[in-house]
Prior knowledge:
mainly alpha, 2 helices
Amino acid sequence: MGLHVPPEPTVAQTVMVAVATLNLVVSDPPTQAEMQQVVNKLDELITAQRR
């Protein structure tokens, strides 16, 4: 029987593992700190996709 080699993970799978969820409850209206958390997470996601 041949050796089974799993396929390489896709970029999307790698990014999903590398970037944690935001876990943020946003108030209405959102505060500057809450919006900054969203911006920071978006930057993290963009950076992870470039790897």
